[in-house]
Amino acid sequence: MSGSDVASEAALNTIEGLVDTGRADMDPSRRAVLSTALYSAALVVPRFGEADETLDRLEHQAAGRTVRIGPGDVAVVRSMTEKVADILDELGGAHARPMAAAFIVNSVASYLRADGSEAVKNDMRAAASDLVYLTGWMAMYEKAHGLGQRYYRQALGLAKAGSDEVTYCRTLRGMALQAANLKHANKALQLADSAAEAAPKAGPRLRAFLRGQQAHGAALVGDRRLAFERLRETEAALSKADNRRDAIGGYDRAAFEFHRSSVLYALGDVTGSIEAMRASNRARPAVEKQGNAHANGLLAQRQLEAGHLEAACGTWHNFLDDYATLSSARADEHFGIMRRRIRRHLSNPKARELDERARELARQKAAA
Predict the structure, then answer these.
(1) CA triplet 40, 44, 45: central angle to 5 degrees?
(2) Which of 27, 146, 226, 304 has its CA 20 to 30 A from that of 262?
């Protein structure tokens, strides 16, 4: 990315840098440039206590402001973040992320520049960090990995400025997932371990959230013993958690079974990973269409890999039920994989039926 497109590296953790990233993400003509930004596997992420201090820069930018924020303004950011997460689940990141970017530019930046009590300002930075983390997660999910990493780093800066270790470690966990998706196994494990270290006082739900990612990281580097040890720790922590469903950074039975499926698949147990993914699907609410589509896309691929063609076709039909109303690059990728892999099986009636439905849906999406 050139300097004319987004803020420089030196300005990354300033309000202006955040605004510039969000403004470019709002603009379809500039978003294409952002999406080509390179992901850096060599990025060194410091521990919370050693992280770059952005508070002085934020304080300097707020100096002399007459606008003041209060707890109600923090609540607005929290509420908007939850609503964006709901839209993400129901309609996909292609709709939700531009909304998040626009809110960051048009509202959150002003809140961050405003004056207020120290407690309120820290709460605002933490709330902003949650939203920026979610926006980075959406960018990662939409395969704009360089942009996702940029948002993640800005979320880390805000969390540090707000003295919020929980959001800091949650963001590190997101970065670990990104590294895992990009097949950087050692980096994925390193970031997952860093996330766990950043939250030594985590409650059971967050502890499960972090241990699950550590289990996947261990599996990716081939450490079977550690992977299963972490899975046991994940399940034990989850059993102690309440039934609250968090819009951001939540962890439930569906997420645990998804992690278990990922661990088993990484260790070569395709059959076990299929059963775990089915368990994840049974536990996931139907309203989470994006999560269902991703899980079913993976499940169908693994069923086909195991030689279960007709079962895979059935799962792909379930995928298409959700895909019909989603706007998501990740779902588009699953759709493309399905169409390519089913072509060699068109002698099977179930495969032909699936292919015909996919062709019609492709025509409908192209005309929309």
Answers:
(1) 110
(2) 146
317: pLDDT strictly greater than 60: yes
Apex 284 CA angle, 149 and 128, nearest 5: 35
CA distance 196 to 175: 13
How many of the other CB atoms lie within 10 Å of CB of 72? 8
Q: Which of 256, 165, 272, 174 shows the shortest CA–CA distance to 215?
A: 256
The single-letter code of the amino acid at 260 is R
What are the helix (H) ranges across the chain? 15-26, 28-35, 55-62, 71-91, 93-103, 109-113, 118-141, 145-161, 165-181, 185-197, 204-220, 224-239, 253-266, 270-283, 289-305, 309-323, 329-342, 349-367
As a whole number of angstroms, the distance between CA 270 and CA 10 comes to 45
Alpha carbon distances (Å) from 28 to 31, 32, 38:
5, 7, 19
Side chain identity at 107, as an amino acid letter?
Answer: S
- The CA distance from 188 to 196, in Å, is 12
Q: Please identify which residue in the block is written with the tokens 């509202």.
A: 107
Q: What is the mean pLDDT of residues 133-148?
A: 90
Q: Compute the distance between CA of residue 112 and CA of residue 139 in angstroms, rounded to an integer.
A: 22
Bridge partners, 68 (sequence order): 115
User: How large is the average pLDDT for residues 226-252?
Assistant: 83
Q: What is the DSSP letter of 38?
A: P
How far apart are alpha carbons 327 and 348 in whole angstroms?
30
- The SS3 assignment for 115 reads strand
Locus of tokens 């995928």: 319
Q: 329 forms bridges with which residues in the sheet? A: none
DSSP string, 61-74: HHTT---B--HHHH
Q: Measure the CA–CA gap between 158 and 264, rounded to whole angstroms.
A: 35
How is 212-239 classified by DSSP, letter by letter? HHHHHHHHHTT-HHHHHHHHHHHHHHHH
Q: How far is it, in rounded angstroms, from Cα 326 to Cα 334?
A: 12
